[in-house]
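Researcher: Quick test of sequence recovery. Tokens follow.
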């Protein structure tokens, strides 16, 4: 199920009138929300804070909103969330991410950090698969 389909479903369930109302409720520009809603490429580059605001307001997880294969709004455990600390410490890219996390430690929660690490690792696995380097 796509982001667009999930948003439509949640708007109806939560009795939110439309995207414009949702944007106002979560204090993000309507045009930004529309970009996420109408363009999967824009959604891939979405600001995590905005997605978190939307998820919190609609009573679902961030994972549910952004991953098409997650069909339950709450309580979903990702089978492939298997990033191990030892592996992260050996990964130069993720070491650089840790430096960024440290720089923004007042803003990011541990859940935010884990989620960002998960997304990076997931994308790395996808690229490795595309390149035939599983």
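Model:
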């Amino acid at each position: 199920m796509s982001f667009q389909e999930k948003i439509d479903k949640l708007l109806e369930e939560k009795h939110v009138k439309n995207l414009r109302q949702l944007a106002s409720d979560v204090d993000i520009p309507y045009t930004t929300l529309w970009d996420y809603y109408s363009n999967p490429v824009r959604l891939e580059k979405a600001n995590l804070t905005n997605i978190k605001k939307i998820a919190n307001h609609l009573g679902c997880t961030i994972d549910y909103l952004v991953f098409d294969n997650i069909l339950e709004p709450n309580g979903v455990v990702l089978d492939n969330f298997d990033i191990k600390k030892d592996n992260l410490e050996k990964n130069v890219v993720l070491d650089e991410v840790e430096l960024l996390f440290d720089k923004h430690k007042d803003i990011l929660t541990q859940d935010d950090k884990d989620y960002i690490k998960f997304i990076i690792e997931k994308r790395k696995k996808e690229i490795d698969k595309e390149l035939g380097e599983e």
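Residues 85-130 form one domain.
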